[in-house]
Amino acid sequence: MEKYGELVWKLLVGDPDQLPPVIQSDEKTNPFAGQLRLSLMHRLERAGATTVFLPEQARAPEEIAKAYSRIIYQDRLTHASSTAVERRPIAQAVRAFNLKHFNLSSNLVYIDLTDSESEIVGTGSVYNNKNCQFTLNLVEDILNANIPGDIGILGCYQAQYRCYSSGLMKMSKVYPQVLGKVETDKIDRRQGSEFDIVIVDLTRSEGAGFMKDKKRLNVLFSRAKNGLYVVGNKKCIDSLKISNGKFLKKFQSEYLRFRRRLTAPTDCAWYQPGQADVRDAEDEDFEPVETTEEEEEEEEEEVEEEKEGKKEKAPIEVSGSSFPVFKVKKFEKESCRLDIAI
């Protein structure tokens, strides 16, 4: 921002409800590691910078976006006309595919894999052979259906990522289009990414692990443009305590009407247990900045006040134009000055 110091406006665009930076160092080697994990947007909000919420989303059909709108954004998202399924050929193809394969006329399917079994390696990373086999078979079915667009397989664990990488490499020898059409990755590396079709692998059959963090879940479930498949285990999520499974439980409650109770395939040509070496797979030590219950309650109260018209934001006049949704504040501390703010 210093490069353009003479500008009247300095606008920052971001989302404090998504993942903060991943910092590889810890407090033992870097005394500022904890501070660095706090995103700039989060810092500015805490410092009192005025912010404005941009409600319209143009990525996904309402059916997919509704869950994260309710759980993360207090049901404030609106949906651009371009997100309507009838205006999206790929979304229509996904819906026809789901009707044929899952007897569900929807662009979202929650796969409750009842015999899912996760395993933990010595480093603490997690993998699940049955989830991997089911997902790779699903990818093959989508390829055979000639649905256009790209596919993303997303999860939270390096060990499971290695299983998928091995399986997709094997699949690419029979389906060459896999190399340019299908990607797999850990969600912490894919903030900002989007795919026409996303398969979310929750991986775990016990505990919440990394998925206790609502910001990670927000990114995980909001990458899809036209089709979303969530592969999980309802029994596992049902057994979670509120202390670490609150938000995963909330997302599951939104997805239950799209649930299909299935078992893992008895055969998979692309992946067999032990095919990938996961013994040294290691996940980054990610420690999110948690929002306290008090902060969440205050945020919800503010949202309700704005909806009811009790809380007004003063307009600003700039060169004869009125911007009624926010006002600019200056935040000064020692030698640091920020003229902000969104």
Note the main attributes of this structure.
single chain, 342 residues, alpha/beta, Rossmann fold, 6-stranded parallel β-sheet, 14 strands, 18% strand, disordered C terminus
Find the structural class using helix and strand composition.
Answer: alpha/beta
Rg is 22 Å
Overall, the morphology is globular
Strand order of the largest sheet: 7-6-8-9-3-10
**Average pLDDT, all residues:** 85
Largest beta sheet, briefly?
6 strands, parallel
3D structure, described in words:
The chain is α/β, with parallel strands linked by helices. It folds into two domains: 2-30 and 290-340, no CATH class; 59-262, Rossmann fold, CATH 3.40.50.300. The protein is 33% helix and 18% strand. The protein has helices at residues 33-36, 40-46, 62-71, 89-102, 129-144, 158-172, 178-181, 214-221, 234-238, 242-255, 293-308, and strands at residues 56-57, 78-79, 108-113, 119-120, 126-127, 151-155, 182-186, 195-201, 224-232, 259-262, 316-318, 321-323, 329-333, 336-340. The strands form five sheets. It has a six-stranded parallel β-sheet with strand order 7-6-8-9-3-10. Strand 8, helix 8 (214-221) and strand 9 form a beta-alpha-beta unit. The longest helix has 16 residues, at 129-144. The model is unreliable at 310-342 (pLDDT under 50).
